[in-house]
Structure prediction request, 150 residues.
Amino acid sequence: MGQTALSASAKPDDAPWGFQLILDCFGCSHEACCDLDRGYEFLDKICIHLKMTKQTQPYIFKTCETAFPGRPGYSGWVPIIESGIQIHTSAHNQFISVDVYSCRPFDQEEVVEFTKRWFNPTHVDTAFLHRGKSLQMHKSLASASVATGG
Prediction:
């Protein structure tokens, strides 16, 4: 089984608020970087694959030809109850970036493999972040400050 965002040994008080997986996909085809339907379907299907709950349909926008002439691509986002998933593409660079952010742990390898199958990049770099690790501490400090009138 692939890596999960939260280890089994983590205590609830130590648990981060969220988990963010960042994928940089290199060597993607022009079609993969320009096909709005493909991007929309990716955002729609990855939510189903990860068993995450969409708040609404994905939103996807073609790169503005007026502001960025000769730089085709698109950007998209789907809001999920657990947080959100976004994608940005650059056909000129054969590059697709994907960010999956969730307050619920998820299998990182599943996201990487799903993305590889969908866009067929020649190489993928990943980074993983634990978000809001100090949230409980900051909530405690804020509560103490309110309680003491500070």
